[in-house]
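USER: For my understanding, would you kindly supply a protein sequence with its structure tokens?

ASSISTANT:
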Amino acid sequence: MKKIYSLTLVLLLIGSVLKGQNSSPVFFDEFSMLLSKANLNYGIEKEGPGFGFGVYKNIFSKKIVNLVPGFEFNRSVQYIEQMSSGHYGKYTDLTIYISTLSFPVYARVNFGHKVKFFLEAGAFVDFTLGSQRKGMSHFYKPGVGEPPDEGFPFEEKLNLEGINYGMSMGLGISIPVSKINLIIKPDYKFGVRALYSYQDSVFNRYFRLAVAIKLF
């Protein structure tokens, strides 16, 4: 119930911001496809890319500084070498999948005339839609100093905190193409809250590459 109330509040806040912009009609004018990577130290064979998509409304779009609220779906993937499963076991070679509905608000500072470069910073609230983990599960054998067994593969639902929040920073380029602007933007999304905490913690933090179109 708390998650529903929070989600409703965020929707009302974003809706009121959009409604207050009488200079332009209320509709989304930017549409983005997203690829993400949680840890650049691991290759695709260990940690595949995440994905997502987003829709946004550019407010003060003719100004140097734009306000860009929106909605995003993100499915992140992260690899963890080892995690405790209690006093008598551990997990290894873990892959964790987290699906979220995100409500970001970005401030975008533009440089240039037709082809524009921009810096972007913002904050977001995430609502966890679902999460899973898979890997190898090991149990310690009885006896002092005995090594754990070889383990067996497993896959299960992971219970995470329902609400997350954090910050993001990025930079990008906006190129006019026919009747649209093509936007390419790398950024980093930093989740502040530990979504899982039992001897080990799980955070939702990742790099993203966004390819978007913006309507004039």
About this structure: Residues 2-19 form the longest helix (18 residues). DSSP finds one helix and eleven strands in the chain.
